[in-house]
Amino acid sequence: MEFDLITIFPHVLDSYLNESIxxxxxxxxxxxxxxxxxxxxxxxxxxxxDDRPFGGGPGMLMKIxxxxxxxxxxKRQKKARVILFDPAGIQFSxxxxxxxxxxxxxxxxxxxxxxxxxxxxxFIDEKISIGSYVLSGGELPAAVVIEAVSRLLPxxxxxxxxxKEETYSEELKIINLKLKINQKE
Length: 185
Fold this sequence. Notes:
With 185 residues, the chain is an alpha/beta fold. The protein folds into 2 domains: 2-153, SPOUT methyltransferase, trefoil knot domain (Alpha/beta knot, 3-Layer(aba) Sandwich); 160-185. The chain is 31% helix and 19% strand. The chain has 6 helices and 7 strands. It has helices at residues 14-17, 20-27, 64-73, 94-101, 139-150, 170-184, and strands at residues 2-6, 32-36, 50-51, 61-62, 80-91, 105-109, 126-129. A 5-stranded parallel sheet has the order 2-1-6-5-7, sandwiched between helices. A two-stranded antiparallel sheet has the order 3-4. Strand 5, helix 4 (94-101) and strand 6 form a beta-alpha-beta unit. The model has no long low-confidence stretch (mean pLDDT 89). This is tRNA (guanine-N(1)-)-methyltransferase.
């Protein structure tokens, strides 16, 4: 599976994504993680990727132009999805991780500042949140999604059976339900 992360800080996750399970998965070519910096498509001497909101208001927004050009540059595979991290998005869950694990490619946009120009919505499939709080950017949510999805891919974990006993596995829910029923009898 290929993970493409669009971020203005392409090295911020290097250490985390190149350790332990994710490192082994990359070495085995089970996953590929690519970073894309929209500054490469920004214009001007300073390669600015942010601007004031058109309607006014506090803070800055990420510009649409560099993001659009970055998205356009990424080669899309069959069974790909483009997501934007947003605190108001769909809550990321184990079920969503399982859904994403069936894809060939997940393109993720890590916003910064006060968010992203709303015109980006024409080019994404969905907004994803990892919780009801605000972070400075989408890089940490991307790391969460990459790890949660990667663990579900065949060959990534040493023992695939361990997935069955995890807190959010369907098998464990059934076992716990049977235990509760037996305790009541």
